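Sample log: Guanidinium exporter.
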Amino acid sequence: MAWLFLLIAGLCEPAWAIGLKYTEGFSRLLPTISTVAAMVASIGFLGLALKSLPVGTAYAVWTGIGTIGTTALGIYLFNEPVTLLRLTCIGLILSGIIGLKITS
C-alpha cells in the first residue's frame, strides 16, 4: 500500500507545480485553492508512504515522479522544448525510479 500512496503523492506533485503557473503569483483564487489542495495531498500521501518506506527511497521516487510529470506537462501545455538530451535525462530519472523500486 505504501507504494500506491507514494505513486499518488508523486502524481499530485506535477499538479501543484503546474498549478503554480496558473495562480499567477497567487493572484487567482480558484487556481490557488487547487494548487494548495494538491500540495496538501502530495505531502499527505508522502507522509503515509513514509510509514513503511525508507525516507531516501520515498523522497527520490516522489521527486522523480514529480519531475517527469511536470516536464511532460510543460512540454504539452506550454510548448517547452523537446530535445533528445532532455528526453534522455527523463529516461535516466525513470530508470532511477525503477531501480529504487526494485531494490526496496
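Observation: The chain has a mean pLDDT of 96.
Observation: Residues 2-103 form one domain.
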